[in-house]
Amino acid sequence: MIDRSVTHATFTLERLYPATAARVFAAWADPKAKARWFSTPDADHELDFRVGGREANRSRPDSGPSLTFESLYRDIVPDERIVYTSVLHVGEDLAAASLTTVTFCPADGGTRLVLTEQGTFLDGREEPSWRELGTGDWLDALGVELGTGGHR
């Protein structure tokens, strides 16, 4: 029997990339670029980057159930803002649902990216700290994709 629980959490992560907002934004919008920094080589990644468009990332770790992360884009303001809702399934079970806002602001010769996620984490299938750590890792990977590193 599953121990039912609901945990609500919000976190905000910031990165400073020495690149224009247009360049950082483009790395989110281009399906090939996004797959390089957001996904893994063995995952199935799809991106339809438009308001109402969907993103899906499916993987199957060697020792566990499949993981499916799906997002729906709610608001896109080029070079300024992205808002999306997401769900994470572990196998067939819903593990988390969230609302994420990403902003791109000019700062010190580059772009300050601010990502805020408000999440609902269900039945211990995912923990807020895991999501925050994983999100930070892919923001760091975005810096590598941009060839700039990025700073916290």
Structure in words:
With 152 residues, the chain is of the alpha+beta class. It has one domain: START domain (Alpha-D-Glucose-1,6-Bisphosphate, Chain A, domain 4). Helices cover 24% and strands 47% of the residues. It is built from three helices and seven strands; from the N terminus they run βααββββββα. It has helices at residues 21-29, 31-38, 128-146, and strands at 6-17, 44-47, 54-59, 67-77, 81-90, 93-107, 110-122. It has a seven-stranded antiparallel beta sheet with strand order 1-7-6-5-4-3-2, covered by helices on one side. The longest helix is centred in the C-terminal third of the chain and has 19 residues, at 128-146. It is globular, with a radius of gyration of 15 Å.
